[in-house]
Known about the structure:
The structure is a single chain. By secondary structure, the chain is α/β, with parallel strands linked by helices. Helices cover 41% and strands 13% of the residues. The chain has a 6-stranded parallel sheet with strand order 3-2-1-4-5-6, sandwiched between helices. Strands 11-10-9-12-13-14 form a 6-stranded parallel sheet. Strands 7-8 form a two-stranded parallel sheet. Bound molecules: uridine-5'-diphosphate-glucuronic acid. Residues 122, 155-159, 214, 217, 221, 256-258, 260, 263-265, 267-268, 326-327 line the site of uridine-5'-diphosphate-glucuronic acid.
Amino acid sequence: MKIGIIGLGFVGLSLASVLASKNFDVIGIDTDKKKTLELQKGIINIFEPGLEKVLKTALRKSLIITNEFSLLKNCEIIFVTVGTPQKKNGKIDLSMIKKATSSIGKILQKTKKNPIIFIKSTVIPGTTENTILPILEKKSGKKANRDFGIISNPEFLQESNAIHDTKYPHAIILGGPETKYMKKAKIFFSKIHPNVKMIVTKHQTAEIIKYANNSFLATKISFINQLSNICQNIPNSNIDDVAKAIGLDPRIGKLFLNAGPGYGGSCLPKDMRALINFAGSIGVNPSFLKSVEKINQKQIDNIISLMKKSLGTLESKKITILGTAFKPNTNDIRASKSIELIKKLLKNKAKIFVHDPKALENTKKFFGNKINYSESLYDALDKSYCVIIMTQWEQYDQINKNSLKHMKRKIIIDSRRLLIKKQLDGKYFAIGVGNES
Ligand code: UGA
């Protein structure tokens, strides 16, 4: 079976690589020529554990990477995995998905195949039926659900776990009418993911499921962060023990209760904003979601006020930030909480030194010579007034008294409580932990 995948970001590239390594004939399409040339050689410019290896296996088998849309003409299945980034007004930008579907439409016009088009990109409810489907019909001159299938199929993979999540999704969501195409889709997914629960529903429901999922995850994080702020002001209390205890209640569950500087990344903040916007546009005031977002926005201010309490003014003081990636095991800094922290510290005229095992290059692209970049922890910490641990990289667990000895003032703000058990001399603040009474 020939499968086409349009948009080779985390989702598309992982899917293309996994399907080709499972012996499907896969054509991966991206309009970025430089990227496709690199991918053809098995080079990826993102740090994603395991992806390069699966990509190389896939290339040796059947994966073709190209920017030629015409190769889609023999595909029986086409996945659309292009990005839907955020516009300045908070709405999602549909330009890439419109372009991709219009190219598919032109191919549909010429082909004798009756492919199924799966929309994996995150889109607000109604987009598939009201925007994507009409483009496909107009460009192809054919009828959806008769000449071709169109199914909403949201994706739940996490960066840094992309290959695992692509191979073992927790659920398959299929949105669209019950047609022969839906029947085929069910057979296809039950073959590649036997035993995974499938929810078949309408397009709009499938679309809102994705937002429900991400906004619930954001809710869990803001919930634990608010509790963490409370704990921080109760002597001898510790947010991690609270999270561990409530996580044992099966009705709550233990995941996504790790308190910290707030949620970042290219998805949760964007999807929260888009959902809040969308709700407003249909006459619903999403007051709860707005609170979740507000708590997230406050987290960095809490860190800065902790710093100011100890240091007074931050002007011209060397401040060290450990971790700029939005989470460990990625070099992605999009909407990273560290980036937000750095921007605010720059406004306070602090002298910033950053360290990150994988994301320094991306951070440099973002801040240029406005801040300093340290390859070693020693350089990052030398003569620093304050260090803030932002990203939970494993190597930061190794930091001890010795690592901090060349700091000018030993103020340590640990947003992930990595050093809580260590004997450190200096002033140690762990986010979510009340000081001893
Ligand atoms: C998120 C969702 O988890 C995926 O299911 C979804 O498919 C994806 O968005 C998407 O829509 O494409 P991802 O952006 O890779 O995945 O990141 P997460 O692992 O969800 O982490 C997001 C942020 O929350 C990070 O900044 C992380 O540090 C923070 N986080 C996460 C916490 O602060 N505490 C936690 O307990 C968990």
